[in-house]
Q: What sequence folds into this?
């Protein structure tokens, strides 16, 4: 894989500047990490140097489409990588924060039945530069709207804990170079136990979210096939270890699927499992976004409310995450799966961003 703009370390960029005064490095670093601008726009530098840097620091991502929804508050990008694979990023603007949902792989090998990326299969891991550039470009859009990116969620395409080397290094850059607090970064996993153990050892205190979707092995196996390898009992055990070690809250993601995992009994099983973690895990409920390869629909709003209420009665805090970008096919992998046609591309005059599947909002 070629080394792209945000793969380069500060030392590697310094090596490109052999004959230049020392302050150039700071100027370039600001251009990359403070302004997230293109080399052509680094006007503190002479034109010839800008041109050389544009060639020496090639972009990893080329925009295929950009789609807007929620009154322009959700922007979803479909990017093409240098080798032709396609990935997605979403920027979600809220009154009090701005969240970027990033992809960690092109495709995904986990094959969760209801997930568009899982239905499409695995292509390859993303490199550090490909992950960091997603954040930088979303941040550029946010800056143009006078907004600051405050939160990062690894809830785009791919399984981040199957690509820990690049994901952890990207977290270091997002934290150290882009200045986003580690506590505002969330890694979401289908439940890869060795990956959760690695995250517990990772020096940055990022948040852990586990995509549970079912609290019984017999019903989790068919929708989240990796459950056969890492069954629930072991998964909850390792979440407990993570919690004790890091003193960070663990949250469970639960896509509510009509008639599959949305009964009162499902809520009771989930509550029992949450209470094994002390303090109880937090639950994020997401009404399922429909995908072409999965016939069942999301739960009705009334069932979502009832499920949440049952959890609360049993002492478990739950947030209903509002679907963002449903009309632009913003569920994980949907845009890439449709070749970009699943959304209405909209030309933005000011930069936008993309957003993950959804983002937390009190119900
Ligand atoms: N592989 C990681 C992160 C990517 S998906 C993981 O599984 O956590 C981010 C979240 O979106 C996961 O909770 C995933 O289960 C959920 N998701 C995927 N497809 C969805 C859909 N169609 N509707 C609602 N949530 C979905």
A:
């Amino acid at each position: 894989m070629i080394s792209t703009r945000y793969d380069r370390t500060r030392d590697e960029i310094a090596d490109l500047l052999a004959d230049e005064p020392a302050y150039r490095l700071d100027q370039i670093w600001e251009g990359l990490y403070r302004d997230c601008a293109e080399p052509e726009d680094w006007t503190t530098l002479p034109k010839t140097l800008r041109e050389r840097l544009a060639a020496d620091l090639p972009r990893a991502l080329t925009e295929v489409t950009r789609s807007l929804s929620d009154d322009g508050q959700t922007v979803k990008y479909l990017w093409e990588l240098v080798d032709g694979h396609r990935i997605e990023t979403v920027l979600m603007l809220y009154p009090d924060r701005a969240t970027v949902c990033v992809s960690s792989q092109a495709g995904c090998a986990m094959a969760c039945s209801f997930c568009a990326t899982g239905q499409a299969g695995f292509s390859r891991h993303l490199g550090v530069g490909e992950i960091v550039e997603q954040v930088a470009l979303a941040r550029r859009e946010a800056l143009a709207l006078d907004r600051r990116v405050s939160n990062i969620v690894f809830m785009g395409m791919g399984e981040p804990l199957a690509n820990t080397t690049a994901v952890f290094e990207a977290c270091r850059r997002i934290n150290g170079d882009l200045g986003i607090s580690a506590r505002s970064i969330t890694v979401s996993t289908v439940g890869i136990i060795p990956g959760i153990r690695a995250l517990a050892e990772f020096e940055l205190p990022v948040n852990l979210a586990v995509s549970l979707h079912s609290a019984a092995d017999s019903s989790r196996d068919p929708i989240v096939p990796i459950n056969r390898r890492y069954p629930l009992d072991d998964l909850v055990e390792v979440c407990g270890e993570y919690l004790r070690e890091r003193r960070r809250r663990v949250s469970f993601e639960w896509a509510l699927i009509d008639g599959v995992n949305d009964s009162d009994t499902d809520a009771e099983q989930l509550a029992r499992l949450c209470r094994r973690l002390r303090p109880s895990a937090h639950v994020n409920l997401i009404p399922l976004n429909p995908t072409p390869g999965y016939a069942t629909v999301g739960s009705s709003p009334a069932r979502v409310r009832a499920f949440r209420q049952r959890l609360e009665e049993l002492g478990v805090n739950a947030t209903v995450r509002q679907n963002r970008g449903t009309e632009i096919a913003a569920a994980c992998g949907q845009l890439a799966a449709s070749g970009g046609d699943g959304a209405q591309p909209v030309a933005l005059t000011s930069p936008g961003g993309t957003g993950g599947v959804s983002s937390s909002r009190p119900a």
Summary: The chain is about 35% helix and 20% strand.
